[in-house]
Specification:
The structure holds 3 protein chains of 3 kinds. Chain A is mainly alpha-helical. Among the domains of chain A are: 96 residues, no CATH class; 79 residues, no CATH class. Helices cover 68% and strands 1% of the residues of chain A. Chain A contains 13 helices and 2 strands. A two-stranded antiparallel sheet of chain A has the order 1-2. In chain A, a hairpin with a 5-residue loop joins strand 1 and strand 2. In chain B, helix 2 packs across helix 3 and helix 3 crosses helix 4. Chain B folds into 2 domains: 220 residues, Rossmann fold (3-Layer(aba) Sandwich); 59 residues, 2-Layer Sandwich (Alpha-Beta Plaits), CATH 3.30.70. The radius of gyration of chain B is 25 Å and the shape is globular. By secondary structure, chain C is an all-alpha fold. Chain C starts with a helix and ends in a 5-residue tail after the last helix. The chains are: A mainly alpha, B alpha/beta, C mainly alpha. Chains in contact: A-C, B-C. The structure holds adenosine-5'-triphosphate and magnesium ion (MG).
Chain lengths: 303, 317, 258
């Protein structure tokens, strides 16, 4: 029939042409939108109380949605290696106000906040505040004390407070025994390789989030590398005592019988001796970048 | 100009049904029929015969499985042809938020009429179908018969050449039916073609030049109402009253209605029967001819169809 | 085209006579008044709360109208068989469909305009005067209207395919998906297989993207919306509606009425 053929023709024409147009337009609109608002991750309502008031009985659901936004926001920034994470705190604030019992929000939120850029926002003070809020709402959940101790230990280097946090947490029901051990050890030694290893390892083991696992693994590797360097320096001192001069390269140690082979960092790059004669991470190793960033931050944040 | 107002060729409609629409029910089977210009055509059949199906196919409300049709010489897919036809749906229903005048005005707008012309026509139609007093009432407050009248008005509003009415009398009181009859006859006088469906045979007999009888989706006969049935006398009926008791065997065949008896006999046996009745002392009141009606023709067809269906069912087991 | 107009005007008349509509608009205005109260209790964000809450109210009410009435537009006429008499007039089915669409879009325009007027009154009450930046609120309202037109088209198309209830679900579902299309594209690529990533990306450019029309944050902070974006969004809706309505017409033209 004539009219039917016309309709079919129209369909065949309009659909591909139309969708091609839509495709092009969408790209145009995207770039326009990107241009007008550099910060599209705007939190429309920054007041958690207001959001909660408006969410009726659905505030836990809304909290989940906000939490998803947090993860997405963090994930996006992380992937693009952008250090600007200023929206993280308002998002977390709204999330935890909406649902004070959403413990993941405190735990991971604190981690996102406390770590040095680019891994996190570099705001351990906010992380502490967040966890303290979480503890207030969930006083029996020992993992939050672990997180608090963690932030004090690694990011604020406040070993006194870290030890207290671990001790407090160890008194909670279900707390694992090592919490008490950790409290004593940190109180006695401050920062030590084995404590740091243990804590990061615990993060690595207890988390299922790939991003967090990856981060913990990097930290573990870096710790390992730093420890290796310390050992290598001790060997170099030994070499200097025997030969009267410091080793120029790793192979010197091997030839002297102090090492069986040239050692490599966890990423597989051989360690080297720097200009000052100290053992260092290889320039090609991805771990170096990590270490430099950490050092820069430690200099910037007053102890 | 083609001589036919409607030409239907092999029109077939199957409705899928059952799980996943795998089975098919044939509602109309290879219908071939013509309606001539200027005639009043009655389309009769029992419930579920396929009358509305045919009309809806003509109006392109549903689409045929096979076959085609032409109206006023044009294929039914031609929308312009609708300028010259009017249609009354079965159990019509209109926008219930409008008044009768508004709904008619709305429909009139689709036919290129000037505003003044439109207004005048709407008024005339409301008067014609007897709704002038109810013209300002929203249709949701209308009764069934009143809606039927609105439907009729919108079908003839634009002075169409062909009017197709699906059960125009249904839901109407005796006065209303009378008015619809008059409207149909008036349309005929104006030279319009009218096709209407009904299962009320007296209406068809009284109005139609020709009728088509459809039963079970198949056309069973087309022709003038008189042509379809054998018009020769089928017998004589004697109406009488009894004055006393009697054991005349003929009386056993008579039927008693009220105080009177009716007796049907063949034409040739009339006088013998009268003689016998007189012997019993009966008072004869009247003698009338008995003719077969469209009704009987129709009933016979329906009976035959049922019997056939039953036979199919039995053999199918 | 004339016939399309006749159907559209009648659709508009139907909406005007429907009391539900007034109740909804009244509700929206009530929400804006509530915004004044909320604005007063929260310090510093008074104006932006009024704008964002007001725009949200316009959007939500508009959504309700366009989804529910959009689906009912054609399905109700089929259900009640009011369509029968109409289609016997010299009207093509696509003309009817387009008229219905036009009528509801017109209704929505009047509705949104009424609610926007209410919003401006509230803004005037709070700020005592309107500045030039406040024109961006007008743009935001225009974008909401564009979005609603697209939703009506989708609702209409779904109602041609399926039952009203399912059509409502599909329309609402597609709307929600359309809000997160952007997120689809921004997902960290390394968590997906390349095939899924390519597919979601591809899809994210073709699905109706309702985030395009979201300039609420900009409106709340009085930042201007560039003219190009207005033009692009207008074109986007025109093309998308053309696609969707063509599809709907193709289906509806072959549909057997009950
Ligand atoms: N939408 C449908 N789906 C399935 N079958 C249908 C449908 N519409 C009609 N039928 C069937 O088609 C047959 C013919 O129906 P139709 O409405 O044409 O009858 P009719 O002659 O108009 O009867 P009535 O005098 O009751 O109006 C019926 O058996 C009916 O069951
Ligand atoms: Mg019927």
């Amino acid at each position: 029939m004539k009219s039917q053929r016309a309709v079919a023709l129209l369909l065949v024409l309009i659909l591909p042409l139309g969708f091609a147009g839509i495709w092009r337009l969408q790209h145009g609109i995207d770039s326009q939108l990107a241009a007008v608002s550099q910060e599209r991750d705007d939190v429309l309502l920054r007041s958690g109380k207001l959001v909660k008031w408006m969410s009726l009985e659905y505030s836990p659901l809304l909290a989940d949605i906000y939490w998803t936004r947090v993860v997405q926001y963090y994930g996006n920034k992380h992937v693009r290696r952008q250090a600007n994470l200023e929206m993280l705190w308002p998002l977390l604030d709204v999330t935890t106000t909406l649902d004070p019992n959403l413990v993941v929000a405190y735990r991971f939120g604190a981690m996102f906040l406390s770590q040095a850029p680019p891994a996190g926002a570099g705001r351990p003070d906010q992380a502490v505040e967040l966890i303290r809020r979480g503890i207030q709402a969930n006083p029996d959940y020992w993992r939050l004390y672990e997180d608090l101790g963690f932030v004090y230990y690694f990011d604020l280097k406040d070993y006194q407070k870290a030890s207290e946090a671990f001790l407090e947490g160890s008194k909670k029901p279900d707390a694992l025994v090592w919490m008490k051990v950790m409290a004593a050890k940190i109180a006695a030694e401050g920062e030590s390789f084995s404590t740091s290893m243990f804590l990061w390892n615990d993060i690595y083991e207890s988390s299922s989030d790939p991003l967090i696992k990856k981060n913990a693994l990097q930290r573990l590797e870096l710790l390992k590398a730093q420890e290796d360097c310390k050992q290598l320096n001790a060997l170099a001192d030994e070499y200097a005592k025997r030969n009267g001069r410091r080793p120029a390269r790793m192979s010197d140690l091997v030839q002297a019988g102090l090492l069986r082979g040239v050692p490599a960092d966890p990423e597989g790059f051989a360690y080297v001796f720097g200009e000052d004669g100290k053992a260092e991470i290889n320039l090609d190793s991805p771990l170096l970048e990590q270490q430099l960033l950490l050092e820069r931050l430690n200099k910037a944040v007053p102890r | 100009m083609s001589g036919f107002a409607i030409e239907i060729e092999n029109l077939t409609k199957e409705y899928p049904f059952g799980f996943l629409h795998l089975k098919k029910k044939t509602s109309l089977e290879g219908l071939n029929m013509q309606v001539e210009m200027g005639e009043v055509f009655g389309f009769i059949g029992p419930n579920g015969a396929g009358k509305s199906t045919t009309i809806k196919l003509l109006m392109r409300l549903i689409f045929p499985t096979a076959g085609s049709a032409r109206i006023l010489g044009r294929p039914i897919s031609d929308v312009e042809m609708h300028k010259d036809i009017g249609y009354l749906p079965e159990q019509p229903y209109f926008y219930d938020y409008l008044t009768a005048a508004e709904v008619l005005d709305y429909f009139a707008r689709f036919h290129d009429l000037r505003a003044g012309d439109r207004k005048e026509r709407v008024e005339r139609m409301l008067k014609k179908v007897g709704l002038e007093t109810a013209r300002k009432i929203q249709l949701r407050k209308y009764s069934k018969g009143m809606l039927q009248r609105v439907g009729l008005a919108q079908a003839i509003l634009h002075d169409p050449k062909l009017v197709i009415l699906d059960e125009p009398m249904s839901g109407l009181d005796p006065v209303g039916r009378r008015e619809v009859r008059d409207i149909i006859l008036e349309l005929k006088r104006e030279g319009k073609t009218v096709m209407f469906s009904t299962h009320i045979l007296s209406d068809a007999e009284a109005l139609c030049d020709r009728v088509g009888v459809i039963v079970g989706g198949k056309l069973r006969g087309v022709g003038a109402p008189g042509q379809l049935v054998d018009m020769k006398t089928q017998g004589m009926e004697i109406l009488f009253a009894l004055t006393g008791a009697s054991d005349e065997p003929l009386l056993a065949k008579a039927m008693k209605t009220g105080e009177y008896y009716r007796l049907q006999v063949a034409e040739g046996e009339l006088y013998v029967a009268i003689e016998q009745l007189r012997g019993t002392g009966a008072r004869i009141l009247s003698v009338t001819q008995v003719k077969a009606t469209l009704e009987e023709f129709f009933m016979n067809l329906v009976e035959a169809d049922r019997a056939q269906a039953a036979a199919v069912e039995v053999s199918g087991k | 085209m004339k016939r399309v107009g006749i159907v559209a005007l009648n659709t508009f008349r139907e909406a005007v006579r429907d009391r539900v509509l007034y109740n909804l608009v009244f509700f929206a205005l009530l929400m804006m008044l509530a915004a004044v109260v909320v604005g007063q209790i929260s310090i510093g964000i008074e104006e932006s709360v009024i704008v964002s809450l007001g725009l949200s109210a316009i959007s939500v009410i508009g959504l309700l109208i366009s989804v529910f009435i959009g689906v009912a537009l054609v399905s109700k006429e089929m259900e009640k068989r009011t369509l029968y008499a109409l289609l016997a007039k010299p009207v093509r089915r696509w003309e009817f469909l387009l008229g219905k669409f036009g009528g509801l879009v017109l209704t929505l325009a009047v509705n949104t305009a009424a609610m926007a007027a209410g919003l401006f009154l509230v803004m005037l009450y709070v700020k005592h005067s309107l500045q030039r930046e406040d024109a961006v609120v007008l743009v935001a309202v225009y974008f909401i209207w564009l979005k609603l037109a697209l939703i009506v088209a989708l609702a209409l198309m779904f109602s041609c395919f399926t039952t009203p209830l399912l059509a409502i679900l599909f329309t609402a579902g597609l709307y929600i998906v359309g809000l997160y299309v952007q997120e689809l594209r921004n997902l960290p690529v390394d968590v997906m297989s390349p095939a899924t990533a390519a597919f979601t990306k591809w899809l994210s450019y073709l699905l109706p993207n309702f985030e395009n029309f979201n300039v609420m944050a900009m409106a709340a902070h009085g930042r201007a919306v560039p003219g190009t974006l207005i033009l692009q969004n207008t074109l986007y809706v025109v093309i998308y509606c053309a696609i969707v309505l063509t599809g709907a017409a193709a289906v509806f033209s072959r549909k057997n009425l009950k």
